[in-house]
């Protein structure tokens, strides 16, 4: 399957979607290095496309580069704060980066008047450690 994307990439080396799809193919094959290379190319071709950051984060997770994954996924969430997949993977990376599963997760959705979109997620760990992540660049 990845070979088919390889042929397609040769035809159109500027299609970020092809690199994203081939990155996913490499992820399914368990090849984190190739997945990372294609995700990086995807991000380079479409730097404002959150999906490229998601693929990049997935590849970093497979390579157990949890801190880098957190940074990349955070950048993706700045581009698309409503992307549930990005947010879920961010918290998974955060938990693995900390070397343990967090005690208990308490989501708090802080709203501005008249706005129903989530602005912040707050995670509480029963070790006295609080992690706050803002998904709104204006806050």
TrEMBL record:
SUPFAM superfamilies per UniProt: TPR-like
PROSITE patterns on file: TPR
Keywords of the record: TPR repeat
TPR repeats by residue range: 50-83
Keyword Nucleotide-binding (UniProt): no
PANTHER family linked: ANKYRIN REPEAT FAMILY PROTEIN, OS12G0634900 PROTEIN
Full protein name: Uncharacterized protein
């Amino acid at each position: 399957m990845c070979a088919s994307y390889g042929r397609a990439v040769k035809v159109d080396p500027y299609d970020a979607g092809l690199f994203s799809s081939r990155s996913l193919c490499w992820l399914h094959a368990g090849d984190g290095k190739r997945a990372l290379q294609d995700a990086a190319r995807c991000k380079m071709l479409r730097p404002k496309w959150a999906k490229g950051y998601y693929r990049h984060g997935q590849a970093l997770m497979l390579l157990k580069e949890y801190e880098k994954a957190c940074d990349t996924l955070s950048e993706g969430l700045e581009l698309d704060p409503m992307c549930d997949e990005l947010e879920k993977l961010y918290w998974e990376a955060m938990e693995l980066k900390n070397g343990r599963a967090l005690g208990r997760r308490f989501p708090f959705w802080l709203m501005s008047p008249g706005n129903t979109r989530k602005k912040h997620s707050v995670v509480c760990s029963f070790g006295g450690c609080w992690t706050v992540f803002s998904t709104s660049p204006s806050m």
